[in-house]
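STRUCTURE:
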């Protein structure tokens, strides 16, 4: 289907589950998308137990562009695939219910795809926006290299221009041609987490390019509890193992640092002095580095600055623990580990071999 054959230019897919806290604030921003063609908005509700469904039905009753679907499986990739099958647009955009997107997000993505230079997916930076005590601290951490895991998707401030960087599998939302997503079979539902990275890896392995455009930056609400942050990053690490077993180039050297930190923490409590003593020294150096980088971060208060080492440690340790558990459940991604340790190119050498 060509753009001229469809009255709908783009379909925005939004997975939702218990997002009632955010919807009345974020959905109006989504509906404010402007461009040359019509945009429709598809919300897939994964068995919400709060007022999510009622809010969406109310919005849909007043705006014919909005459609609401059931997602019995409840997972994000299942929701996205339900939306993809129902979409009528030539282009597909993914948005998250607890994020705030610029009004030209879809239009910028479409314009970039239309340049026909091998770019298959267009995204914007994720801009952390704290909304509570711990969320605010996590946002500060994500603005630091120590909290970004080597991914170029994170940004501490909004961009306004067309400046762009090429991404690996560290992506946030995005815009695609619908025919591209259909060719790849959509999102793999075996990835309840990390499904965006897995899809990005398939695109890169096939020779496609992914770019992050500064002006498409969207604000993102981080977790507001340490327990929630731990679960989130543990799941990130866990499913990164599954992703890198299929796509070895999707593991960065920075990922290995989190695993090493867990190893050091474990070794430091062993009753073998020859092992525990150097491990404790390494753990101490890590703690000093956390404090030093926390002091350099732009926190709003002394209390926030004092809490940042805890936030960093939770992010690193939970990711590493999740990764190690993933190695137990899925098997170690040996090729990925060797590739990352050697620091080989994610976007050139490995892509050529796997494509």
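SEQUENCE:
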């Amino acid at each position: 289907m060509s753009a001229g054959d469809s009255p709908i230019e783009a379909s925005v897919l939004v997975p939702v589950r218990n997002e009632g806290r955010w919807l009345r604030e974020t959905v109006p921003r989504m509906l404010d998308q402007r461009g040359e063609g019509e945009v429709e908005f598809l919300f897939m509700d994964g068995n919400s137990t709060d007022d999510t469904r009622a809010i969406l039905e109310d919005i849909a009753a007043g705006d014919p562009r909005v459609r609401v679907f059931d997602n019995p499986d409840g997972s994000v990739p299942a929701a996205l695939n339900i939306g993809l099958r129902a979409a009528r647009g030539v282009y597909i955009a993914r948005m998250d219910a607890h994020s705030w997107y610029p009004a030209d997000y879809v239009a910028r993505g479409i314009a970039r795809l239309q340049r026909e230079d091998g770019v298959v997916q267009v995204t914007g930076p994720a801009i952390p926006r704290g909304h509570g005590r711990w969320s605010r601290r996590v946002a500060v951490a994500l603005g630091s290299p120590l909290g970004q895991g080597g991914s170029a998707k994170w940004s501490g401030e909004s961009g306004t221009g067309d400046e762009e960087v090429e991404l690996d599998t560290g992506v946030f939302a995005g815009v695609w041609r619908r025919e591209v997503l259909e060719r790849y079979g959509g999102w793999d539902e075996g990835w309840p987490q990390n499904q965006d990275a897995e899809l990005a890896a398939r695109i890169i392995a096939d020779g496609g390019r992914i770019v992050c455009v500064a002006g498409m930056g969207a604000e993102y609400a981080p977790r507001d509890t340490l327990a929630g942050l731990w679960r989130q990053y543990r799941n990130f690490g866990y499913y990164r193992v599954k992703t890198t077993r299929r796509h070895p180039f999707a593991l960065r050297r920075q990922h290995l640092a989190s695993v090493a930190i867990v190893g050091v923490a474990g070794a430091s409590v062993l009753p073998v002095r020859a092992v525990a003593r150097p491990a404790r020294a390494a753990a101490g150096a890590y703690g000093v580095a956390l404090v030093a980088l926390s002091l350099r971060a732009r926190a709003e208060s002394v209390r926030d600055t004092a809490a940042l080492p805890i936030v960093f440690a939770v992010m690193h340790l939970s990711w590493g623990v999740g990764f190690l558990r993933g190695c137990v459940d899925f098997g170690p991604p040996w090729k990925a580990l060797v590739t990352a340790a050697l620091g080989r190119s994610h976007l050139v050498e490995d892509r050529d071999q796997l494509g």
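REMARK: Confidence is low (pLDDT under 50) at residues 345-355.
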